Automatic annotation (TrEMBL):
<keyword id="KW-0812">Transmembrane</keyword>
<feature type="compositionally biased region" description="Basic and acidic residues">
    <location>
        <begin position="263"/>
        <end position="274"/>
    </location>
</feature>
<keyword id="KW-0732">Signal</keyword>
<keyword id="KW-0472">Membrane</keyword>
<feature type="transmembrane region" description="Helical">
    <location>
        <begin position="144"/>
        <end position="164"/>
    </location>
</feature>
<feature type="transmembrane region" description="Helical">
    <location>
        <begin position="113"/>
        <end position="138"/>
    </location>
</feature>
<feature type="region of interest" description="Disordered">
    <location>
        <begin position="253"/>
        <end position="283"/>
    </location>
</feature>
<feature type="transmembrane region" description="Helical">
    <location>
        <begin position="176"/>
        <end position="197"/>
    </location>
</feature>
<feature type="transmembrane region" description="Helical">
    <location>
        <begin position="71"/>
        <end position="93"/>
    </location>
</feature>
<feature type="transmembrane region" description="Helical">
    <location>
        <begin position="225"/>
        <end position="245"/>
    </location>
</feature>
<protein>
    <submittedName>
        <fullName>Uncharacterized protein</fullName>
    </submittedName>
</protein>
<feature type="signal peptide">
    <location>
        <begin position="1"/>
        <end position="32"/>
    </location>
</feature>
<keyword id="KW-1133">Transmembrane helix</keyword>
Length: 283
């Protein structure tokens, strides 16, 4: 018993010593951290000030890199758009060929797959072309970069073609298909002509065309076209919003009418099937 008491006392003493060592170590770490912060405070402030102090040469290089990178990106996108315009025209005008090819299929599943792939790729190319062309509505880019002077109008024509596809069935309606075709042709011409004969024209012999068809060299024409296109873009977007909201309201109204008619029918059936009292059961 005496040995057990001694061992318990020894363990308690060891535990107290361990706790005291932990407290001493933590207090030392806190004091060291405070001292380091006091010493490093002025040095950290000086390093921060040195980091934010950028000389004019470095700042000019950074600004030049940023503006040059953005200009390269926009000009590259503008150079890609002729390929997308031509591809959109090819896919749209190849519809009669695809219809004739599908009619030769003996398997309905294969014909459906071909048609779905064609519709998805055709509409995706048109949407991608419009999405890339959105930067033509940025006034600073139109005024500062050599872009086609009528590029915003070409984007509006493409937007109207997409609007017809949204509001009407251009695959089954011949009139809607013709309208989409005309809008795509006018839009592609409006973009390709100033791009090929203005922006990408040779330096010799085409000075007048380059200055007239480039947005940065002819702001007297490019900026009014841009502002007119912005107005048309806003009006078209407002009409699309109205069309979609009206469709949603009609769908919800039809759903509410259907539910009300179903409720009335159910109540009528319940009233018709309710048991009525016989002549002998009345009293």
């Amino acid at each position: 018993m005496r040995g057990m008491k001694m061992s318990r006392t020894f363990r308690r003493a060891l535990a107290l010593v361990f706790v005291a060592l932990l407290l001493a170590a933590s207090a030392g770490a806190v004091s060291a951290a405070e001292g380091h912060a006091e010493v490093a405070g002025p040095m950290a402030a000086e390093a921060m000030a040195h980091t934010h102090a950028v000389d004019e040469t470095t700042e000019g290089l950074i600004d030049g890199l940023m503006s040059g990178g953005f200009a390269f990106l926009y000009i590259t996108l503008a150079a890609m758009l002729p390929l997308l315009w031509v591809l959109a025209l090819i896919l749209h005008l190849s519809r009669p060929y695809l219809v004739r090819t599908i009619r030769k299929f003996t398997l309905r599943f294969g014909a459906d797959v071909w048609w779905l792939l064609y519709v998805m790729i055709r509409d995706a190319v048109m949407i991608l072309t419009f999405a890339i062309s959105v930067f033509f509505f940025f006034p600073d880019r139109v005024a500062g970069l050599p872009l086609p002077v009528t590029a915003p109008l070409a984007t509006i024509f493409l937007f109207w073609a997409l609007l017809i596809k949204l509001t009407r069935d251009a695959d089954d309606d011949a009139g809607a298909y013709r309208k989409v075709t005309y809008l795509l042709l006018v839009g592609a011409t409006t973009y390709l002509v100033p791009f090929l004969f203005g922006v990408e024209a040779s330096m010799e012999g085409w000075e007048a065309a380059r200055s007239a068809m480039s947005s940065s060299q002819n702001p007297a024409l490019s900026m009014p076209i841009l502002y007119l296109s912005l107005v048309l873009l806003g009006a078209t977007g407002a009409y699309i919003f109205y069309f979609v909201a009206r469709g949603v309201a009609r769908a919800s109204g039809r759903g509410g009418t259907t539910s009300r008619l179903a409720g009335r029918r159910e109540r009528a059936l319940r009233h018709h099937e309710a048991p009525t009292a016989g002549p002998g059961e009345a009293g």
